[in-house]
Amino acid sequence: MKFAIIVFPGSNCDHDCYHVVKHVMGQEAEYVWHKDCSLEGFDCVILPGGFSYGDYLRTGSIARFSPIMAEVGRFAAAGGLVLGICNGFQILCEAGLLPGVLMRNRALKFICKNVDVRVESSQSAFTSAYKDNEVLSIPVAHADGNYFASPETIKELEDNGCVLFRYSTAKGDLSPEANPNGSLGNIAGITNATGNVLGLMPHPERASELALGNTDGKGMFESIITSFA
Amino acid sequence: MTITKEMIEEHGLTPEEYKRVVEHLGGREPNYNELGVFSVMWSEHCSYKSSRKHLGKLPTEGPAVMQGPGENAGIIDIGDGMAAVFKMESHNHPSFIEPYEGAATGVGGIMRDVFTMGARPVANLNSLRFGAPGEPRTKYLLDGVVAGIAGYGNCMGVPTVGGEAYFHDSYNGNCLVNAMTVGLVKHERIFKGTASGIGNPVMYVGSRTGRDGIHGATMASDVFDESSEEKRPTVQVGDPFQEKLLLEACLEVFKTPYIVGIQDMGAAGLTSSGVEMASRAGNGIEIDSALVPKREEGMTPYEVLLSESQERMLLVAHKGREEDVAKIFRKWGLEVCVIGKVTDTNMFTVLDNGEVVVNIPVDALTDAAPKYDRPIARPDWQDEAVSLDLDEITIPEDLNDVLLKLLASFNISSRRWIYEQYDHMVRTDTVVLPGSDAAVIRVKGTKKGLAMTVDCNSRYCYLDPFTGGAIAVAEAARNITVSGGRPMALTDCLNFGSPERPGVMWQFEQSLLGMTEACNALGTPVIGGNVSFYNENSETAIYPTPTIGMVGLVDDLEAHTTRQWFRDEGDLIVFMGETLDELGGTEYLKISHGMDRGMPPVLDLEKEKNLQEACRVAITSGIIRSAHDCSEGGIAVTLAESCLAPGAEIGAVVELDEVALRSDAMLFGESQSRIVVSIKEADLDELKKIAAVGNVPLKVIGKVGGKALKINDKIDLSLIQISDAHANTIERFVSK
Lengths: 229, 736
Fold this sequence. Notes:
The complex is a heterodimer.
Chain A: E1 2-7, H1 14-24, E2 28-33, E3 44-47, H2 67-77, E4 81-85, H3 87-94, E5 101-103, E6 111-119, E7 135-142, E8 146-148, H4 151-159, E9 163-167, E10 187-191, E11 197-200, H5 218-228
Chain B: H1 5-10, H2 15-24, H3 32-41, H4 44-47, H5 52-55, E1 65-67, E2 74-79, E3 82-90, H6 92-97, H7 99-115, E4 120-130, H8 136-156, E5 160-167, E6 176-186, E7 201-206, H9 216-219, H10 240-254, E8 259-264, H11 269-281, E9 284-288, H12 301-306, E10 312-317, H13 322-331, E11 335-343, E12 347-352, E13 355-361, H14 362-365, H15 382-386, H16 399-407, H17 416-419, E14 430-432, E15 439-442, E16 449-455, H18 458-463, H19 465-482, E17 486-495, H20 502-522, E18 526-532, E19 545-554, H21 557-560, E20 572-576, H22 587-593, H23 605-620, E21 624-629, H24 634-643, E22 652-654, H25 663-668, E23 675-679, H26 684-693, E24 698-704, E25 708-711, E26 715-718, H27 719-727, H28 729-735
Parallel strand pairs in B: 4-5, 9-12, 17-18, 22-25
Antiparallel strand pairs in B: 1-2, 2-3, 3-6, 4-6, 7-10, 7-11, 8-10, 9-11, 12-13, 14-15, 15-16, 16-19, 17-19, 20-23, 20-24, 21-23, 22-24, 25-26
Helix pairs in contact in B: 7-8, 7-10, 8-10, 10-13, 19-20, 19-23, 20-23, 23-26
């Protein structure tokens, strides 16, 4: 399976995603420069974390104009798997491939730590390796992860089972204390209506190796690979 | 323009120094541009004029050293064809004036120093000192400095993996922000800041030049007074996104054969980078200030030469390769152009549209810059400060209460509020996260890891700068050792008051002598660093603060990496080392008795060396479950911290031998050369054998287990009490 890892000028988790896909999962991986216009031959596209254009303006608001984003849109419309992590999630929202926005964290500070995240459904190309309601410990690292959308949009997401991950306690309870950034409904990750585009704030690529003491995120890459096989 | 007395004074030059300027120019008066150039190059910050004499005594060589002091950063060989590049630098003055940008640009500057050597920065650390918590500016400075470090490092994608933060009145009028970066490079990709090859083009890359930071180096060479607030415009503004582009572009261009030398434009901007590159190659350099990309119209050559705008590099390319180099920088959207050439004149020559506006011998700005042998005198208050009669110190009745107070104190409590604002996991190499003794990162593609730490106890240095300097080195090495690494080399950031005070120079000299002795004993040479003088306000100088940034090598990451936290019920707790009846300079004395007094703990370097050696052998033989260095707060705090494994807290029952000791010295004394380890019971004989080799005292003091920490009949605290005390002091302070 061949993964494209999009490189915006300020991407900084591109190497990490490449490393996991290539060296941990043993799949093919290639960097794709944001000014390129083709995703031909790729099976899955990852928009990695980072500060695509410095994020002095709203996060992801400039990156969505990068030439590659039109192609990412076509790739997604054709049913291709697209995974946006952190800044990648923000870019997908700005590009309209996912609904809603990611606002400044409730505490107005950058926050980096392991958080507990509940898998809402294992019936997804991104989560088949997990169990329903399984709680994962995965790092977050962002200043703007506070998910917000209109009540109608939230209802639509909930009704269609598009909320794939929520911040929870280690036992799986949804409490305000377990919510690191103030996201509505403790939302940590959502898919589009067709389920082939996922955006999430936690970083599965930082939790995919025993050497780092955490493999809870590896299931996401396993799921993607299984879905393609 | 005729140079007046006032101009000379404004430029921080003494009349004597000005006379020498005229001599260097062959009897000619300098013009205004030249006066500016001399002013920054002869500033304390750039010329090290008061410190050079003393710095020369530090040991700088060792089998692993590939680059010692004198370049943008030092380099050590870590095997497998790889090298670690690192350096620490201060950004104290700018951070005190404008904390966010001051700290941010400090981080940006030190990262450029590392990647200009060809290395990719892989970890940042920092050492921060703020005034007393009750001081009105402390909260503002803490909040701004941490946000600034986070803002820059996070955007760059370089994890901030470790550091220290202290609060003390001596920093009320002058905070310290020392930033360290560690990078990795393959041996064959190492680059240096040299302008060789007569006729080679000199190229400017990165951000445009603006009017920010003009005379920053001169500001950093002066003491603070009431007008310091007016110096805000001399603090630079950082743009981490530009620097990220610059980093990626530079690493890309380093893969080509087009580059001769490269240097970051840091303090004193274009002037110092041009002069230093020429000086290292023994050549001259000629640049035209009109060709420099500018942010604003109407900038004079004077402003262009002295601007400290950030995210800029000066490089020398091979002649004929200008366009190849430019293409790469343009791909990343950066300014790039040829602004001059390498010459054989040995002159630093600046043109403005072809007309000569600066023409100074390179040598006059570097090697022939003034050097001072400043007067040195031990302050007369020193005797009073070190006098301490233990009989007059009443031992508090409730020692549980003392331990809780220490755990909750500003200098010992958890630094979580700080490090959670730093992305400490990006690059997926951080094996030991912040909160343990040293951070450990893996070196992808090898079995190895790098352990790193920053350390200094400035109270010790104030009470006895020799011992304090030696302990800073010893403790840094101990932190590396308990984490599973071999201490390799260090960088220092020497923060002191005004060198014009004989007492400060005494502190400086003594600290360096102490550091030298410890470096020699422990085999850790100094491969680079920075001196920051004039850290004082109108009232007082800071405590002498020679911060040590040390890097060690973990040979087998998977097998040797060790953390400070107890692991399994029933593990034996073993104390290595010896506690003496000493309390001078301790955190306990400050917290419980309100005193900064007495001689700091005795350091016996032979014992220290043997202890660390034994600990490393035990770790590499695989029997150590946890290891934690004893430092501020003594063994009681060490044990309490070892109980607080994140998400896996576990208690301990301990019996300390107290026959000869005061109970407060036993629990909270800060005797040196002590480590607490935990092992499986079956491994005790092996540990004893290892310790016997270097005659390291060793005693089983208890067992891991339960939900409380119990020490003799003195301490009995639940894990909840301990963790509550330790967890939130800083967070509560800033959100108040």
